[in-house]
Design a protein that fits this description.
Length: 473
């Protein structure tokens, strides 16, 4: 880290923490009691604070990572400061843990961006800092910084594990991956992505060596992402996967992830599934349109990073060049929407969440709407892959496999499930220009200001309840 860049980043970290503390104070004053999922998380953490580790709320579906970290942070502070009474493990104190995770996420995002974008160090310094700041204030993630949810801690440990894998510290990455799984079991998918990047690196090296031996005119170090080489790449993958020396070279590097995966499989067998508590509301299904929702979500939130006349022209050129491919993609998408759209009961019943209004105002407007938006899905998918065209085909395949595994089995449309794949997508695209980053930060700031204002000020009551209800992600 250059000295000037370090000073700027430190100043931004301090400013970000100060502003977050002020917002935290306001939100906690307005909503002192546990809200939404906090009614499960807060009492469970308080039981752990009291040393009651054998008591468990059956409605909680995640492992106790958040509670263990909370107790591990709060208890030493309690002893040092001499705190007693209700202040220890109060709702506000527990929420403050996520504020610390927010600072950690900002730092980790910066380190990941720094590692991935090493070229043009001097010119890219400000863009790296701005990118990290933008992503740490990503609206869906930033909102849950102020509530006692698992999202901030889950993101922190996945990002930490990925950073360690980028630096080749795979044993440490494996241990951090275990911590991530303790926050949310589905993080096994993103730990698998860490392992997948190791495998794709080996595949890229092997591909380059093979092409060099054939003395072809073009011997790219990365596999180009195009349909033309599908058969060739498939044969290469089959040969690689059936070669003992190749398997050995991968296992020598990726064995910590293999050990962790074996442990996770053992957990699933003993637990009888991936969900810990209430399984009736978290049943897996093949909800393929979740991929389309994610691509659309990514298209909107990354708008300042990609929006340009050149991008539109590039899409039209691709459409004109391969019309049959896009026709096939559209037909397949229509079939998936028709046959594999599932709607969770919570999406239809809980009017406190924004997805409730997205579904009611858009998708339920007319029975044809889910099909009419398919061309938009196609463009969103193309834009996603176009932004990552600098990455190899193998890397893109690894990301798409993990993305599919993380989204498709989910019956509930929940924007929180999109946080990690969005961040991983965003850190890997080329660094946007400074004006674009400022526009992105402005967009995120406006969304954050609006959602926090609505949460604090626009309260309402259900007809059969006197409790104050608030709108949220």
């Amino acid at each position: 880290m250059e000295r000037f860049e370090g000073y700027v980043f430190t100043a931004l970290c301090s400013t970000n923490f100060l502003i977050s503390c002020l917002l935290f104070s306001k939100i906690t004053r307005e909503q002192r009691e546990p809200y939404m999922d906090e009614i499960f998380h807060v009492p469970q953490a308080q039981k752990y604070c009291d040393g009651k580790f054998s008591e468990w709320d059956p409605m909680i579906t995640t492992l106790p990572g958040l509670y263990l970290v909370s107790v591990g942070v709060i208890k030493p502070l309690m002893w040092l400061a001499g705190w007693t009474g209700k202040v220890v493990c109060s709702t506000g104190m527990l929420r403050f843990i996520n504020l610390l995770f927010n600072c950690g996420n900002l730092y980790l995002l910066y380190l990941i961006i720094y590692k991935l974008h090493l070229k043009d160090k001097a010119r890219a310094a400000m863009r790296r800092v701005l990118s990290a700041l933008c992503l740490s204030t990503f609206p869906v993630l930033y909102f849950f910084t102020f509530l006692y949810y698992t999202d901030a801690g889950s993101t922190f440990f996945v990002l930490f594990a990925y950073l360690m894998s980028l630096y080749g510290s795979h044993k440490v990455a494996g241990l951090l991956g275990c911590c991530a799984i303790l926050f949310r079991q589905t993080n096994i998918i993103w730990v698998a992505f860490c392992a997948g990047t190791v495998v794709t690196q080996k595949l890229d090296e092997s591909w380059k060596t093979e092409q060099s031996k054939k003395k072809e005119e073009k011997c790219p170090s990365q596999v180009p992402f195009s349909l033309a080489g599908v058969g060739k790449v498939t044969r290469f993958l089959f040969e690689y996967a059936t070669t003992p020396s190749s398997i050995k070279s991968v296992l020598l590097v990726a064995w910590p992830y293999v050990v962790m995966a074996a442990g996770f499989v053992a957990f699933m067998v003993l637990n009888g599934g991936i969900v810990v508590g209430d399984r009736t509301s978290h049943e897996a299904c093949l909800n393929f349109p979740q991929l389309f929702y994610f691509f659309s979500f990514t298209l909107l939130f990354s708008l300042p990073a990609w929006l340009s006349y050149r991008r539109a022209v590039s899409f039209l050129h691709s459409l004109r060049k391969q019309p049959l491919l896009y026709l096939l993609l559209t037909v397949v998408s229509l079939i998936l929407v028709w046959k594999f759209t599932f709607v969770h009961k919570y999406l239809l019943a809980d009017n406190r969440h924004y997805p409730f209004y997205v579904w009611r105002k858009v998708f339920q407007k007319h029975q044809l709407v889910p099909f009419l938006v398919v061309p938009g899905y196609v463009f969103a998918m193309w834009n996603f892959m176009e932004s990552l065209k600098s990455k190899s085909l193998f890397w893109n395949l690894a990301l798409l496999v993990c993305l599919t595994a993380a989204t498709v089995p989910q019956k509930l449309l929940e924007f929180r499930y999109f946080i990690l794949p969005y961040l991983l997508y965003r850190v890997h695209i080329p660094l946007p220009s400074t004006p674009r980053l400022l526009a992105e930060f402005g967009l995120y700031t406006l969304v954050n200001a609006a959602t926090l204002y609505i949460f604090i000020s626009k309260t309402f009551h259900w007809p059969d309840s006197t409790d104050v209800q608030r709108f949220m992600w």
